[in-house]
Amino acid sequence: MKASQFFVSTYKEAPADAEVISHKLMVRAGMIRRLNAGIYSYMPMGLRVIQKVQAIVREEMNQAGAVELTMPVVQPGELWQETGRFDKMGPELLRVQDRHGRDFVIQPTSEEVVTDIARSELRSYKQLPKNLYQIQTKFRDERRPRFGLMRGREFIMKDAYSFDKDKDSAQISYQTMRQAYRNIFDRFGLRYRAVAADSGAIGGDLSEEFQVIASTGEDAIVYCPQSEYAANIEKAEALAPGQPRPAASQPLVKTPTPGQSTCAQVAEGLSIALATTVKSLVLATDVQDEQGNITGSTVWLLLVRGDHDMNEVKVGKIAGLDKGYRFASEAEILEHFGAKPGYLGPVGLRKPLKIVADRDVAVMADWVCGANEVDFHYTGVNWGRDLPEPDVVADIRNVVAGDLSPDGQGTLEIERGIEVGHVFYLGTKYSAAMNATFLAENGRPTLFEMGCYGIGITRLPAAAIEQNHDERGIIWPDAIAPFTLVLCPIGMDRSPAVREAAEKLHDALLAKGVDVILDDRGERPGAMFADWELIGIPHRLVISDRGLKENQLEYQHRTQTEAVKVAADDVLAFLAQQGVFQEPGAQG
Amino acid sequence: MKASQFFVSTYKEAPADAEVISHKLMVRAGMIRRLNAGIYSYMPMGLRVIQKVQAIVREEMNQAGAVELTMPVVQPGELWQETGRFDKMGPELLRVQDRHGRDFVIQPTSEEVVTDIARSELRSYKQLPKNLYQIQTKFRDERRPRFGLMRGREFIMKDAYSFDKDKDSAQISYQTMRQAYRNIFDRFGLRYRAVAADSGAIGGDLSEEFQVIASTGEDAIVYCPQSEYAANIEKAEALAPGQPRPAASQPLVKTPTPGQSTCAQVAEGLSIALATTVKSLVLATDVQDEQGNITGSTVWLLLVRGDHDMNEVKVGKIAGLDKGYRFASEAEILEHFGAKPGYLGPVGLRKPLKIVADRDVAVMADWVCGANEVDFHYTGVNWGRDLPEPDVVADIRNVVAGDLSPDGQGTLEIERGIEVGHVFYLGTKYSAAMNATFLAENGRPTLFEMGCYGIGITRLPAAAIEQNHDERGIIWPDAIAPFTLVLCPIGMDRSPAVREAAEKLHDALLAKGVDVILDDRGERPGAMFADWELIGIPHRLVISDRGLKENQLEYQHRTQTEAVKVAADDVLAFLAQQGVFQEPGAQG
């Protein structure tokens, strides 16, 4: 490819609305162009990256036995009413009426359509298992689209759906996809982690996220360097402390803590460790009669250590809180604590309530908490002596670095990641809602066991950039770079020798199957180099009159700061060594 | 590919709503599946065809120097307001509001978005010419979607847009695309014609349709077997008759023609040639004052020979009718003719009007027309003697087979076609509306000269089927067949020899790059053959125990009715001869 025949368009400045580096660099490198909030044109330079991502995903999905189809972008609302999602989903679901006033949605995913296909096309267990996937435009009307392709409204997703005859078979389909995802992410050339994720209402452990590691990632990823353990922060278990609760050694004292309404302020004010304080969170669940009318509420007090954070997903699994909960109202708090929020605690309650203590709180002695009175805390609080033992002891906190790994193989570390893939066992959630059955071996209509598997095709390039960039611009891994190698001729307009050498090399590299671009735009060296460093092409060769006189070219990898001289005659062998292409018969 | 791992789903019956053969066969062969009126899922078998069409289009577009990008499906209404299309387009344009109540459209094409890109990215004449294209999902909310993929609501189109600095350059861009389209359509392996089309308001001859020839096509195509001339029926010129008008030889006679209100009935009733009768069509144009209020109307009488049809596009180019016309009202007709429609004619008008005679009518003598009195016609009508010479003489009829070719190289034939591609010179229509300029060599902001170029990616397979099918099903050309060759083993379950031979051949063909499918589903021969004939795979090899004992396989091309025996050892060489694959080094 010659740059003059392609579409190279770079910008010195990032747009004002770009907050994250990938957004800034993709716009500056001319890869995407904003059409509207969260809606982008994929410009030629960016589309090449997206197409390479697609090609890798398609190859590995096919390799894993999945079969590609394409489902419509515009889908009838009546199908979405069968699962209740037409009404249940919020305004993220873009709804539209056709000329006859019939309801449609712009697909955010395709569970309904694919389940509709399965229930009429997959009639017998003999046709199972089957995994159907598409790579297709999706739309989600985000309330606050931002970060460029990271959280757009229109995006491209690969979504796959597996159909199995029973749970055992579904397990195998799930594991097959899990392995396919590892193959896919290995090929992208990015650092990533497959982390266990919470599988919500379905239960079980069959949900994993594929996270591209990046310090700017929105998600906290927990892993154990000494083992294979990895999970997202919602899922990672904080093990029960190994040591028992110490005996009480301090008296209960009501201590003035003027203006100190947070654990951190109290710890600082009293010069004590934050880990000796306890945070109070007050939740409520509504009590309903048989007709579904709300007749009252139950109030819950959750206690986590001052240096820990509550984990909402874990809280949502506690019996009694697992049907949904809310924060308690001021009236409910006043009724039970006799005080307003800020200095609440479990000692001296006005009205009994359910106390849930984190496992770590349950083994504390001589701790500090609010005294249910403004500007006062209790110190020297002890279970059993100053208040009853908790009603529930459970893991309700986020793990922190240094916690024991749940597999007992070491201690946990935490890093940040960007979710770009998710594999998920669905069970019969959709097949039951849509009465999607096949005839089992026993001749009975049986619900499909389903799984779903997504990859954010247009999000992946953004994640790759968050992970791989420097002050000069993007650094693409070879596998998904818009071009693998750029030829930069110096003074091509003036020098026939440079032009000839550049064009000869361009043609030779094309013949080797290298995705090469020759910059024949006539830019000056500085501007030319800056453009390709911004765009992030991994390999660069400079061709100049001075070099040619010494029979030399200059090679520089995007991660290097200095060029190396390469004999012009040996350049193909040198590039093969750099992995730019493989010689036939070479060991891969 | 093994059929058991793919998705093969055939039906004996076509759906009730399928009117045309391509729709019936695509559904029966499991290629598409209806989700809603005019909205289809592209099932795995159909998607393979679509992807092959896309790959050919992409290769040739890139080869022609066009650059691919992807523009959003959901586009902001405000951009469409700049060209006025947001309001001007009817309900075909699917409009939607986002969660904030802002207007969007689901793209039917992308002129607005691409022109918006050009006006900010293409700043200098040095960046021109540039041709940008996408292959993307489109939506057109057809009032009456039908014929499967032929006239769907959601469809995939390749749309390209060229930007040039002046008309001469735009001509070259247009011709480049025209040649690329010829290359593309040649590769599809279909019989097609590139025909001149009317370019509407833009004028000039720069509009061509690419029509796949099919007797079921909606469009009439005019061509000259003795030359390169081809045009659609709207465009094809009927040459002026070579001979002068004969002298009058009959008297004007008012003749009873009871109940004979059409030319055909009159010709039959009077035992005269239809070509001696003249049809009257009464049109009207409104007269407006400066404020645009309608103050009156002009009535026009158009005359074509009884065996000819009026051509609305040609009529719309006559000075005075080129701003729009309508059929005259009954009152207007009564006022000018003193009679109701059915027996109208230009002789003995009550009030003068504009008479437009087709070129053929203008040279007639002794002709027959209505007498402006029910149940009466005039015979022996002659220009000059019985009525004044016409106000306008013009080509206002459709050509018919046997007419002289406009290029003077022979006579015209007419066949039917399906439009699957269109190349069109746009001029500055969109760039002017959106003030899309670049800096020309003279330093002045200058409007882009534009062209647009479409191919109906999902319509093409339907057109291919309309052209190529028989009573057994589809007949794909190799280039776009879902699979090039099917291996049909007989009794693979029982015979290890058949299984081994089938799998060995499957692997050998894969290694040659052949798109092969091995039917390992265990169907009986009759059902298996019927499936693949319905699906339309061009090449079939049958492997049986009986054949293997004689070291033979049976080959049959989809267009043949008998199989031929092929020595098992020679089968690869045989298939290469059939064009199933090319041996390296073979001449292509």
From TrEMBL, chains A, B:
<dbReference type="InterPro" id="IPR006195">
    <property type="entry name" value="aa-tRNA-synth_II"/>
</dbReference>
<dbReference type="Pfam" id="PF00587">
    <property type="entry name" value="tRNA-synt_2b"/>
</dbReference>
<dbReference type="InterPro" id="IPR045864">
    <property type="entry name" value="aa-tRNA-synth_II/BPL/LPL"/>
</dbReference>
<dbReference type="InterPro" id="IPR033730">
    <property type="entry name" value="ProRS_core_prok"/>
</dbReference>
<dbReference type="InterPro" id="IPR007214">
    <property type="entry name" value="YbaK/aa-tRNA-synth-assoc-dom"/>
</dbReference>
<dbReference type="GO" id="GO:0002161">
    <property type="term" value="F:aminoacyl-tRNA deacylase activity"/>
</dbReference>
<feature type="domain" description="Aminoacyl-transfer RNA synthetases class-II family profile">
    <location>
        <begin position="33"/>
        <end position="477"/>
    </location>
</feature>
<dbReference type="InterPro" id="IPR004154">
    <property type="entry name" value="Anticodon-bd"/>
</dbReference>
<dbReference type="InterPro" id="IPR023717">
    <property type="entry name" value="Pro-tRNA-Synthase_IIa_type1"/>
</dbReference>
<dbReference type="InterPro" id="IPR036754">
    <property type="entry name" value="YbaK/aa-tRNA-synt-asso_dom_sf"/>
</dbReference>
<dbReference type="GO" id="GO:0004827">
    <property type="term" value="F:proline-tRNA ligase activity"/>
</dbReference>
<dbReference type="InterPro" id="IPR004500">
    <property type="entry name" value="Pro-tRNA-synth_IIa_bac-type"/>
</dbReference>
<feature type="region of interest" description="Disordered">
    <location>
        <begin position="240"/>
        <end position="260"/>
    </location>
</feature>
<keyword id="KW-0547">Nucleotide-binding</keyword>
<dbReference type="InterPro" id="IPR044140">
    <property type="entry name" value="ProRS_anticodon_short"/>
</dbReference>
<protein>
    <recommendedName>
        <fullName>Proline--tRNA ligase</fullName>
        <ecNumber>6.1.1.15</ecNumber>
    </recommendedName>
</protein>
<dbReference type="InterPro" id="IPR002316">
    <property type="entry name" value="Pro-tRNA-ligase_IIa"/>
</dbReference>
<dbReference type="GO" id="GO:0006433">
    <property type="term" value="P:prolyl-tRNA aminoacylation"/>
</dbReference>
<keyword id="KW-0067">ATP-binding</keyword>
<dbReference type="GO" id="GO:0005829">
    <property type="term" value="C:cytosol"/>
</dbReference>
<comment type="subunit">
    <text>Homodimer.</text>
</comment>
<keyword id="KW-0030">Aminoacyl-tRNA synthetase</keyword>
<dbReference type="Pfam" id="PF03129">
    <property type="entry name" value="HGTP_anticodon"/>
</dbReference>
<keyword id="KW-0648">Protein biosynthesis</keyword>
<dbReference type="InterPro" id="IPR002314">
    <property type="entry name" value="aa-tRNA-synt_IIb"/>
</dbReference>
<comment type="function">
    <text>Catalyzes the attachment of proline to tRNA(Pro) in a two-step reaction: proline is first activated by ATP to form Pro-AMP and then transferred to the acceptor end of tRNA(Pro). As ProRS can inadvertently accommodate and process non-cognate amino acids such as alanine and cysteine, to avoid such errors it has two additional distinct editing activities against alanine. One activity is designated as 'pretransfer' editing and involves the tRNA(Pro)-independent hydrolysis of activated Ala-AMP.</text>
</comment>
<dbReference type="InterPro" id="IPR036621">
    <property type="entry name" value="Anticodon-bd_dom_sf"/>
</dbReference>
<keyword id="KW-0436">Ligase</keyword>
<keyword id="KW-0963">Cytoplasm</keyword>
<comment type="similarity">
    <text>Belongs to the class-II aminoacyl-tRNA synthetase family. ProS type 1 subfamily.</text>
</comment>
<dbReference type="Pfam" id="PF04073">
    <property type="entry name" value="tRNA_edit"/>
</dbReference>
<dbReference type="GO" id="GO:0005524">
    <property type="term" value="F:ATP binding"/>
</dbReference>
<dbReference type="InterPro" id="IPR050062">
    <property type="entry name" value="Pro-tRNA_synthetase"/>
</dbReference>
